[in-house]
Amino acid sequence: MTEPARTRPGGIGTVVTEPGAEPVIDVGRLHVHAGASHILRGIDLTIRAGETVALLGANGSGKSTLVKALVGTVTPSQGTVGLLGARLGTDRVPWERVGYVPQRVGAGGGVPSTAAEVVASGLLNGRRWWLPRGWRGRVRDALGEVGLADRADSAMQVLSGGQQQRVLIARALVRDPDVLVLDEPVAGVDRPSQEAFAATVRRLGERGVTVLVVLHELGELAGLVTRAVVLRHGVVVHDGEPPRPRTEHGAATHHHQHPHDDATRRRPALTQNPVAADPEEVAP
Amino acid sequence: MNPLAELGWMFTDPFMQRALLAALLVGASAPVVGTYLVQRRLSLLGDGIGHVALTGVALGWLIGAALGVAPDTLAVPGAVVAAVAGALAIELVRRRGRTSGDLALAIMFYGGIAGGVLLIGIAGGSNGNLMQYLFGSISTVSDTDLALTVVLSVVVLAVGVGLRAALFSVSHDEDFAVASGLPVWLLNAAVAIVAALTVTVAMRVVGLLLVSALMIVPVAVAQQLTHSFARTMTTASVVGVVVCVTGLTITYFQDVSPGATIVVLAVGVYAVAAAVRPLVARRRPAQDPHPDLPDDVELPPAERKAADQEVCT
């Protein structure tokens, strides 16, 4: 049916660390419709090797749809998506170099599965339908990378939400990707898991892995993100420096207790985290 | 005659030898496919396919009657074709829009039975002819049936066990499988086809109406005992073999329906496993289930004390 396991094609070792190199993600005039709604309205986005990019925006702004179009689970109605120099839909994309962490949805199907089994499925790709020799060691290493080395044989459903999310990150890391795409990896996740995630992203950045991460707020990643792209209603409204949250509002320790009177003191957009500044997000 | 000698008799009986081999293969392969179906929450898919296979049986009869061959010869091939077509149709519907999948199953249930009864009448048969397919007739397994059973079971086991990692990935998280570059459509179709083949293989042993039980109930038993996908599959397969062979052995001595006996046995094993598990399972102390995670919320000591007392009383 397919050729047996092969060593991965040339590509490893060619990772370029400095920004300004080959485009890893190249999206051009991308439109996505879902039924009657026009979710993405002409997105242009180029991400080069070694960048750590945060994709920000309010709920419904199209962040997740953009990520899904990137990994091929949503079909664009118009425009092109390029991944590692290959065009989705026409070329063969080297998926074995792409790590994808979807938004966590429940604990999986009707049959229990262990963390190791879930992570092992990250070792498969279009050319390799079987687990390679030595997969246990690689799975253990990937779980160690997210701080769950001792939970390899735990059933997914007994892990906490944050731990399940880390298992999904390990599943993306186990194939040793050159580009990592994460959809809200820290949404509703406990603090230790957020810190473990930030440490992982730091290590990946140092290794030259390109990271695109969908976030609601920069949080623990504030110092690691090299560039931020902000979506609003399916359009890129900001692309550049990560927005600095106002210190008294953005800090994780901040307690938001004063009454809102934002109408009188609304600042121009992007001097603070634009997600929080979105007028639709602020209670009247 | 002592029971051992009777068992010896059973194994020398050529009818019984064929039946036992068929039961062994079906018992081993049906739960393997069932594991994927339960994983996808498609436990009733086997039933839908079984109903469609009935139309295939009748169609085989009709064609056999038209060609002037013995009507039974084309029944099993007809069932294979109809079951594969039906399984692929359900897979297509599931792919298009997930919500209508259960409606499509329902339509297949009724269309399959009605079509079967209608066609068997046109072919000049009676509903009685359908009974052996609906409820199984393992004692009449012929050499040809057995050969087909062996071939199809080997195919089912080869795909189900050989492609386990890939099929697990697709069944567990389809989006991730797409983003891995796995041929998701092909693998989904493989599960559907293998499920269809299992239905037609198991048709002779337990009958179309009870096929799904043999695919699903052993998995339900195994779930009570393990928490890993691979071990669930292995355990289910062992349970399947044990209930099939035991059930068949019982019917050698007692004149009862083999299919019904096997399924009742399987359900009985499930009931025992479900009842015993809470007694056997280590009783975990009512403590923090995640001792490795610090608490998010700090409670003042007084409040915590009150909460603890509440638990105690």
UniProtKB/TrEMBL annotation, chain B:
Q: Where is the composition biased (Basic and acidic residues)?
A: 301-313
For the keyword Repeat, the answer is: no
Q: Where are the transmembrane segments?
A: 20-38, 50-68, 74-93, 105-126, 146-167, 176-195, 201-221, 233-253, 259-280
Q: Which Pfam families match?
A: ABC-3
UniProt keyword Transmembrane helix, yes or no: yes
**Family annotation (SUPFAM superfamilies):** ABC transporter involved in vitamin B12 uptake, BtuC
Keywords attached to this entry: Membrane, Transmembrane, Transmembrane helix, Transport
Which InterPro entries does the record associate with it? ABC_BtuC-like, ABC_TroCD
User: Topology with regard to the membrane?
Assistant: Multi-pass membrane protein
Compartment list? Cell membrane; Membrane
Q: Where is this region: Disordered?
A: 285-313
Family note: Belongs to the ABC-3 integral membrane protein family.
The name of this protein is: Metal ABC transporter permease
Organism of origin is Myceligenerans crystallogenes
